[in-house]
Design brief:
Radius of gyration: 27 Å
CATH architecture of the largest domain: Alpha-Beta Barrel
Structural class: alpha/beta
Number of strands: 29
Mean pLDDT: 97
CATH class of the largest domain: Alpha Beta
Strand content: 15-25%
Bound molecules: alpha-D-glucopyranose
Helix content: 25-40%
Strand order of the largest sheet: 5-4-3-2-1-11
Distance between the termini: 38 Å
Length: 738
């Protein structure tokens, strides 16, 4: 057990004995009951009756601690064996204190902060009866059309792994409300974010090497950090749906990872094996899922309806049922819910929305904001941001005074009433005497509230216009993929009109973007002097935006997912392969044209790339030193550089370390993130930043599909983002050569 969080993968002999004793007393029906997870809307009759009969082992998304205690009393006091239920909840970015969406949280590049946010979420969840948090979502996502990019940590496996560990530590913290323990559930296992076309639930057809090098690492990191469960995904992987995929559920999880936790299907995903076309009926779906390694059927009804029959018919060995139930009972003993099944109902009012959690939500929101552009209005002038607090401000746009949308997707028990709007944040920062005019200008989509003239008039009467645009919460998240990534509705027309009005008088226009994904901002980048990506920033989003716009906080966020110039570029991500005809080299001349991997009509570069984000100050990178120009396979790469704050304001900088393996037995990305450090520098202050990276971290799965590092030459960068930086070289040599 770690000193700060629980490791649910650590076996305790005493618990193992308790599990065996209980298992031996169970009937086959009771065992199968433990493998059934239902929601209160399960449609199978009275939930209490099923619980009393021992037909339900866990429930999900029960939003009242009183209701949870009621169901738990039936399980513990009315069923034959008194086995308590595990209560699972989608706590994706907060329970009642809603933090920015996970993609925004990740843009802080601050594992400690994310661990604290996850702990706060777990504390609130514990206080309201949850034992099991269906998070962190650790799907690597390289397609912004996919709505669930909002729920994860973006496009990079290394950053995703670091943040997965932080979130598991936070969720599985010790010392939660009521002494409760909570088990995390990294999801959606696996490669769900690789859906073709960015269309949710769609086909995933990737190589085993891509699976192992890109999509598995964040899951391995989460399980290594002690996560006690995992949720398998809806998608197929190369023809085999995750819910019946023994390669990922047994060979990888059990044999390679040696992991003992519980595998939970996603919602009705076992039943959907029929729609996938790999099961003729629910009975075959149940058989395939249990044989492949599913332990719990979430709302698929396959296990409860058919497992007993399949065992009795000899199609499924009872030993497989026992193995699954053993893992489920082990988890329940580890959670302590046999001894403490109930939650004190007064806890919620003491824990939910605690001031320190509201403050934490503000800190995360402030640090998640990414400054994409901040240009002077005229050559040599001051950049548009921060705005002067005594300026006359026109605040316009559909999200300028909105509450509900700022919660973002998967807002759990969050309430719009808890959200501070941007308008309220501006008023709080500017004070009562502020010259602040608000005009909505248009709706997020559709024709209602259309008042572009009013917005233009407000801009004309002001010194600066702040335009708050973006997406609704439901334009991202599950089942909410988009084929066009521009601004919905009349938002573009509103922005163009305000920009035109302000340009005439040389006034600054600042766009605040609130979205669940990277959008296509190509026109905006050309015509708007300042752009802040504020995401769906949670209950404190409004104040966070105001703090950044008026300079109380210097923006420090950096992108974790690439912003495409156009949908036609997708997928566009930094860690791409070189190809045989890289765009940045002279191509092969055929038919008097250079032939190389590029478009005729668009750049191959993203509009804003991975790791990118500006500050109100500037940073200079100098004096790269590779302290280990030759390093052995079992050695440590040591590289350093000096970072100087060359501006007039203090600021945080997220310094990044990238490598490139120049020659491998298989092709390798042109860059891979292998380290980052967040540093705070006063004006003119400089800091020597040193990275120490075990060479073992520089490996990949080679021709034989074994992980390893190859000897050979590498490039290394210490950089502000994935497309810049100071470049050096080093060589990995055989252990006996160094
Ligand atoms: C949903 C989601 C999953 C969630 C589960 C329970 O379909 O895919 O992320 O945890 O069902 O709500």
């Amino acid at each position: 057990m770690n000193d700060s969080h629980y490791d649910f993968n650590h076996l305790d002999p005493e618990i193992e004995a308790q599990v065996e004793t209980l298992l031996a007393r169970m009937t086959l029906e009771e065992k199968v009951g433990q493998m059934n997870q239902v929601s209160p809307h399960w449609g199978g009759g009275e939930l209490e009756d099923a619980v009393r009969r021992g037909e339900v082992g866990s429930v999900l998304n029960v939003w009242s601690v009183e209701r949870i205690n009621q169901l738990q009393r039936v399980a513990v006091e009315k069923s034959r064996l008194g086995i308590p239920l595990i209560v699972g909840t989608d706590v994706i970015h907060g329970y009642r204190t809603i933090f920015p969406i996970p993609l925004a949280e990740a843009s802080t590049w601050d594992p400690d902060l994310l661990e604290r946010a996850a702990r706060a979420a777990a504390d609130e969840a514990a206080a309201t009866g949850t034992d099991w948090i269906f998070a962190p979502m650790v799907d690597v996502a390289r397609d912004p059309r996919w709505g669930r990019i909002a729920e994860g940590a973006g496009e990079d496996p290394y950053l995703g792994s670091v943040l997965a560990r932080a979130r598991v530590r936070g969720f599985q913290s010790q010392g939660l409300a009521g002494g409760k323990k909570i088990v995390a559930c990294p999801k959606h296992y696996v490669a769900y974010g690789a859906a073709e076309g960015g269309k949710d639930y769609n086909t995933v057809d990737i190589s085993e090497r891509t699976l192992r090098d890109i999509y598995l690492p964040p899951f391995k990191a989460a399980l290594d950090e002690g996560a006690g469960s995992i949720m398998s995904s809806f998608n197929e992987i190369a023809g085999v749906p995750a819910s019946c995929n023994a390669f990922i559920l047994r060979q990888i999880l059990r044999e390679e990872f040696e992991w003992h936790g519980v595998v939970l299907s996603d919602y009705d995903a076992i039943g959907e094996l029929i729609q996938h076309g790999v099961a003729a009926d629910l009975k075959e779906a149940a058989r395939k899922a249990i044989l492949a390694g599913e332990d719990i059927d979430m709302m698929g009804h396959a296990f409860p309806k058919h497992l007993v029959e399949l065992v009795r018919e000899g199609q499924v060995p009872e030993a497989l049922i026992d193995a699954a139930v053993r893992r489920i009972l082990r988890l329940k003993f580890m959670l302590g819910i046999f001894e403490h099944p109930y939650t004190a109902e007064e806890l919620a009012s003491q824990v939910l929305l605690k001031p320190e959690y509201r403050d934490l939500a503000l800190e995360v929101a402030q640090k998640s904001i990414v400054l994409l552009k901040n240009a002077p209005l005229e050559d040599g002038g001051a950049p548009a941001l921060p705005l002067q607090s005594n300026a006359r401000i026109a605040l316009v746009g559909p999200l300028a005074d909105d509450r509900a949308e700022l919660l973002g997707c998967w807002a759990c028990a969050g309430r719009a009433e808890d959200v501070e709007t941007v308008l309220e944040g501006f008023r709080a920062v500017l004070g009562a005497g502020a010259d602040l005019t608000y005009v909505k200008g248009c709706a997020l989509e559709g024709d209602e509230d259309l008042d572009i003239e009013g917005a233009v008039a407000a801009a004309e009467a002001a010194d600066a216009a702040v335009v708050v645009l973006g997406e609704s919460a439901m334009m991202s998240g599950e089942a909410h993929s988009r084929a066009y990534l521009g601004l919905p509705g009349h938002q573009r027309a509103l922005l163009e009109a305000v920009v035109a009005a302000c340009a005439l008088e040389g006034k600054p226009v600042v766009v605040i973007l609130m979205s669940g994904r990277p959008l296509v901002l190509t026109w905006m980048k050309e015509h708007v002097p300042a752009i802040l990506q504020a995401w769906h920033g949670g209950i404190r989003a409004g104040r966070a935006v105001a703090d950044v716009v008026f300079g109380a906080v210097t923006p420090s966020g950096k992108l974790v997912a690439s912003f495409p110039r156009t949908e036609g570029q997708i997928p566009v991500y930094y860690a791409h392969k070189s190809t045989g005809r890289p765009v940045d080299e002279r191509g092969v001349i055929q038919f008097n044209r250079e032939h190389k991997s590029q478009y005729l009509d668009e750049s191959t570069l993203p509009l804003y790339g991975f790791g990118y984000g500006l500050s109100y100050t500037t940073f200079e990178y100098t004096d790269l030193a590779v302290q280990t120009p030759e390093v052995s396979m079992d050695g440590t790469l040591v590289v350093s550089a000096t970072v100087t704050n060359t501006g007039e304001r203090c600021g945080d900088e997220i310094v990044q370390l990238y490598i490139q393996d120049l020659v491998g037995e298989v092709t390798r990305p042109v860059r891979e993130l292998k380290g980052f450090q967040r540093i705070a520098l006063q004006p003119r202050e400089r800091q020597r930043v040193t990275f120490e990276v075990p060479v073992a971290n520089l490996g990949f799965h080679g021709l034989e599909m074994a992980y390893g590092v190859e000897v050979g030459n590498f490039k290394v960068w210490i950089a502000p983002h994935a497309y810049a930086g100071l470049e050096g070289r080093f060589t990995v040599v055989g252990s006996d050569e160094s």
